[in-house]
Amino acid sequence: MLKSDAFKDKIVLVTGGRSGIGFQIAKDFLQLGANVIICSRKEDKLKIAAEELSTYGELSYQACDIRKTEDVQELAQMIKEKYQRLDILVNNAGGQFPALAEYISDKGWNAVINNNLNGTFLMIREMANAFFIPQKQGVIVNITAEVYRGFPGMAHTGAARAGVENLTKSLAMEWSDFNIRINCVAPGIIESSGLDNYPPQIQDMFEEAQKAIPLKRFGRVEDVSNAVLFLASPMAAYVTGISLIVDGAQHLGFDKMGLARVLKSFIS
Ligand SMILES: CCCCCCCCC/C=C/C(=O)SCCNC(=O)CCNC(=O)[C@H](O)C(C)(C)COP(=O)(O)OP(=O)(O)OC[C@H]1O[C@@H](n2cnc3c(N)ncnc32)[C@H](O)[C@@H]1OP(=O)(O)O
Ligand SMILES: NC(=O)C1=CN([C@@H]2O[C@H](COP(=O)(O)OP(=O)(O)OC[C@H]3O[C@@H](n4cnc5c(N)ncnc54)[C@H](OP(=O)(O)O)[C@@H]3O)[C@@H](O)[C@H]2O)C=CC1
Predict the structure, then answer these.
(1) Is the CB of 95 under 6 A from ligand 1?
(2) Which ligand is nearest to the CA of 92?
(3) Could you tell me the residue range of the domain that residue 166 belongs to?
(4) How many domains are there within the chain?
(5) Is residue 1 part of a domain?
(6) Spacing, Cα 87 to ligand 1 middle (Å)
(7) What is the Å distance from ligand 1's center to 149 Cα?
(8) How many whole angstroms from 217 Cα to the centroid of ligand 1?
(9) Which pLDDT score is estimated for 237?
(10) Using CA positions, which residue lies closest to atom 42 of ligand 2?
(11) In-domain check, residue 4
(12) Domain-located, residue 192
């Protein structure tokens, strides 16, 4: 267990912190003494989450679409004015929609690549230039997804997340000179608000899917947050450039074609 003051006075930005996994990460950092900033696109929902989170500690929020350079720069400016520094960036915002590859339009492909790869890069670049590089210190944790054997049924997000994993390796080396550590956490299927986005025919398969995962359950938001806390803490001081898979061994023994099969059944 981390001590209750493990992140005392650290300034932590959690993208997509209004819901699900990001909310849990924000809550855990607050309970361990950090000052936390959350951002996402929907300001009304962000505000409601911020009210709840602020009962756990010092919390700020700002609407920001991670795909828009101007939004990200305005967020960096707010953090600079309010806190003068940033210690930890958790790139959690993201998402996609299920679709067979042959039916993904240009717009759909670009939306998912922008959301998960380009938005993550933009956030990393802007926060590194504003804070981590001049500070000569910083920690970045990217939430990706378990894409070890590809992601049939969501090929766009598989490609985007693999891109983030490789970006993480490059930056772990390039930015080692600036004392910046960067890692990924790759969740399997996690019981969170994110799963509500999936159509009923897919949700109907969840019970069977849980049995097929070696640890016989979906992950919990706490499972993902615990991995993030570890990678962000000094306990991981010598860990950089890795992806920590949090999936109950789904990547080793789970029928990855399940999702694509359901999608194919819609068409036939
Ligand atoms: C067996 C067990 C298995 C289990 C299987 C479960 C695996 C779980 C693993 C992973 C779980 C998670 O990540 S859970 C997290 C889920 N959370 C999210 O996905 C939330 C964030 N997602 C989003 O915001 C959106 O999905 C995303 C498309 C990425 C970005 O939204 P935007 O507002 O930018 O874009 P939109 O305007 O909505 O859409 C842009 C275009 O994308 C395409 N598009 C968007 N939604 C679409 C849809 N549902 N179906 C087809 N196409 C779609 C269309 O071409 C749209 O253009 P038009 O046609 O012109 O409109
Ligand atoms: N749940 C699961 O099984 C898995 C989840 N993941 C990933 O973990 C992360 C969190 O997922 P989860 O909590 O389950 O899902 P949610 O849908 O609850 O969370 C996604 C969050 O990201 C925000 N967001 C999405 N796009 C943007 C954007 N362009 N700019 C700013 N914020 C954005 C959303 O807020 P808003 O709508 O207000 O913008 C929301 O708070 C996502 O990246 C997801 O893909 C990975 C593997 C499995």
Answers:
(1) yes
(2) 2
(3) 11-267
(4) 1
(5) no
(6) 31
(7) 21
(8) 24
(9) 98
(10) 94
(11) no
(12) yes
CATH number of the CATH domain containing 173: 3.40.50.720
Q: How far apart are CA 257 and CA 268, in angstroms?
A: 16
The answer to whether 117 and 109 have CB atoms below 8 angstroms apart is no
96 Cβ closer than 6 Å to some ligand 1 atom:
yes
Interface ipTM: 0.98
Segment 181-194, tens digit of pLDDT: 999 999 999 999 99
- pLDDT above 90 covers a percentage of the chain that reads 98
- Protein residue whose Cα sits closest to atom 12 of ligand 2: 194
d(C-alpha 266, C-alpha 156), whole Å: 19
Query: What pLDDT does residue 199 have?
Result: 92
Residue 80 has what pLDDT?
Answer: 98
Residue 242 lies in a domain: yes
78 contacts: CB under 8 Å, gap ≥ 6: 37, 60, 62
